[in-house]
Design goal:
This protein is α+β, with helices and mostly antiparallel strands. It has three helices and six strands, in the order E-H-E-E-H-E-H-E-E. A six-stranded mixed sheet has the order 1-2-3-6-4-5, covered by helices on one side. Strand 4, helix 3 and strand 5 form a beta-alpha-beta unit. The chain is globular and about 40 Å long. This is Endoribonuclease L-PSP family protein.
Length: 119
C-alpha cells in the first residue's frame, strides 16, 4: 500500500511531528485543524480553507468527505457554524460528530478533523 503524507507548511507539523493529511488505503485522513480569527465562524471558515488546500494537494475535495468530527470547547458555539458547514459540504454531507472538549489553546473555538475518499 502506498502512503502519501501532505504538509500545509505549518511550523507545528514539524515541531509536533504530524502531517496535515495522509493518503492511505483509499482515504485521505486530515488531521484536526484549527483556524485563525476572532469568532467561531471566522475560525470555522479558516479551518475549512486549510483542510480544502490539503485535500486539493491530495487530489480530493470536501465533496468526497465521508466522516467529519468537530471539536468545540463550548457546544453552544456549534450552531453558528451550521450554515458555514452546510455551504461547505452542499449536497455531499458526511457522517458527523461534535465533541465538546478543551482544545490545545483557549483562543481556538473549533477544530475540525475529516476523512475523504481518495480519488
Amino acid at each position: 500500500m502506498t502512503i502519501t503524507r501532505i504538509s500545509s507548511g505549518s511550523p507545528f507539523e514539524e515541531k509536533i511531528g504530524y502531517s496535515r493529511a495522509v493518503v492511505a488505503g483509499g482515504f485521505v485522513h486530515v488531521a484536526g485543524t484549527v483556524g485563525q480569527g476572532d469568532t467561531v465562524e471566522d475560525q470555522c471558515r479558516a479551518a475549512l480553507a486549510t483542510i480544502s488546500q490539503a485535500l486539493e494537494k491530495a487530489g480530493s475535495s470536501l465533496a468526497d468527505a465521508v466522516r467529519v468530527t468537530y471539536y468545540l470547547p463550548d457546544r453552544h458555539e456549534f450552531e453558528p457554524c451550521w450554515p458555514i458547514l452546510r455551504e461547505a459540504f452542499g449536497d455531499n454531507p458526511p457522517a458527523a460528530t461534535m465533541v465538546e472538549c478543551a482544545l490545545i489553546d483557549p483562543k481556538y473555538r473549533i477544530e475540525i478533523e475529516l476523512t475523504t475518499l481518495a480519488r
